[in-house]
Amino acid sequence: MLHLIMLILPALIPSWRFFKDVAPSPRIKARIDGSEWREVQRRDERITVQLSSKHLFFNPNWNADLFLVSLSERLIATPNQERKARFDNALRAHLGLDKATHLEWRLSLVDYHSGRIVQEVVFESADPMPAAA
Q: Which of 21, 24, 56, 112 gets the highest tally of CB atoms within 10 A of its CB?
């Protein structure tokens, strides 16, 4: 009986250790046709209780942003042409751009050093970035 309880216990009381380690947070900036650089992740200007309650159950924009961040983390960890093309395609889809539009993007890491926030660019797209077929 004790063995059965030990098997069921992790399902009832899950572990809250989601991450292996805490690393700097990647930020995605893009510019279209030579315009100003802007952050891609959308943030709500004001979050009300009603909006927060809705986001608890349905938040497709946040999920799309998390997908891009996940792709950027993989690209930073192991850069290769396939991951670069996949990220570029996902970013174009996220922004609603076709392959003919000139898109530049950069990935930077935000960290906290010596009492201040530091942002370091770690990866930039080629100019122009060839899209994967």
A: 24
